Amino acid sequence: MKKILIPTDFSQNSYQAIDYTMKLFKNETCAFYFLNTYSYDSHGLNAIEMLQAEDDWFDKPKEESLQHLGELLERFTGDNGNIKHSYHVISEYASLVEGIEKQVKEIGIDLIVLKGEIIVSKNVKKIIDQVRTCAILIVPSAASIHKKLNLTITSTFKQAVRTLEVDAFLNILSNTNCDINILVLDEEESITAEVKNNLKLFVNHLEKFPNSSVQVEYMKASRSIKDYAITHLNSIMCITDKKPGLLRKIGLTQSKAISVLEKISKNPVLAIHQ
């Protein structure tokens, strides 16, 4: 059974991401883990005041988290619950990134689903940057499910694409037909022999998935990835986040994947790690 982790802050955007994900995997046998992380509002309290705080002060955030998780379960799993799906709730005293890292490791998560926003949040940036053992699906509030699932994988193919996380995503969709578009981020006339070889290997690999058809497109000089995404709002756009270098690790630069994500914020985006 595939395991999908969906952090939630109980916002409308969060609920829309959950609804999209459950519809996306409606034909698949999978377990959904709804995670809410919480903290204590200790602003203005010194160490002695913290020690003297009543039990209710410590219990309240946990109780509120569990109450909202219970309401979430009732909302999404009522009389119309999918028998192929199982549902679990997790309430954790931790930062969002720490909570996700812990559950990914302990449960063996196959996919993380995050709510998308017009401006990419610091949390999304941190999660893509730090949680590098599984793919991350970012779902904007306007995303909707179409009759035919389409996945567009973008890359320059200047180096071989790591297939582990793409495979994991497609394996969750084992009972769902999927059209895969490969968008080479260069003009066909300009690509090198190495790019051609990396592309060929990747196409051959994807063609092994029985429920998928694969097509290749090349970026035209007059178009940008933003232009492409706007005309393909029914497509999940897949982008690759390269392994952080020294300058990125110390905060002087940010991932190019984040820059791309900011340009295509109206599409669902699958972020994979190189």
Automatic annotation (TrEMBL):
Signal peptide: none
Entries under Pfam families matching the protein: Usp
CDD domains, sorted: USP-like
The UspA domain, residue ranges: 1-114
The protein's name: Universal stress protein
